[in-house]
Please model this.
Amino acid sequence: MVQEYVPPPPIAHNLGRIDYLLISHGHMDHLNAPSLRGLHLDAASIALLPLDMGRIVRKIRPGLAVQEAGWFQRYNLPETDKSPLEIIFLPARHWHRRSLRDQNSVLWGSYLIRANGKSIYFAGDTGPGEHFRLIREACGPVDWCLLPIGAYDPSWLMQRSHMGPEEALDAFAELGGRRFLPMHWGTYRLSSEPMGEPIHRLQITAEKRGLTPETLVMPS
Model:
């Protein structure tokens, strides 16, 4: 069992109705069945998923509308009278497994969301790689980058699927990001580094690289 640093939030009570549900990959800490069952989803809600994840999600939430996409594909979103919304599924350096026999049978990735002239990049789980440069070349610079900074020790094992703070800052630069919001740290014990180390190292390295408080948005 994975050790938790903090208890899961009461999702069903804190969130209202959800229009679009984005799930980056199929690992149990990201596609969690009890959490998915507790979300307020109705007939108009749509789950935007990687390729071949729909069958898993439908078993957990029968009747939920789903769309699947491969890397660099746009989801087909309903037209509205509001500002156009665009969501693109993008690469990540990670992997899939939920059972003994389904290794990499489902795709994994990241998301770019564009609306009201702004963009948000959600990296999901990822190791370092050239995909950040490719995303920048295909999609342009990003206003908000949600990048993982934890679960990196030991590096010889974790670097294939997770980033440390310094690598996340490199990815932020490659994406041409304007704001950096760190994530994926201090919640579950997935690796060997101390709980507070990722955010401490991020602050030190960000200061050395000249990032301002307006650029690095720290959790309060």
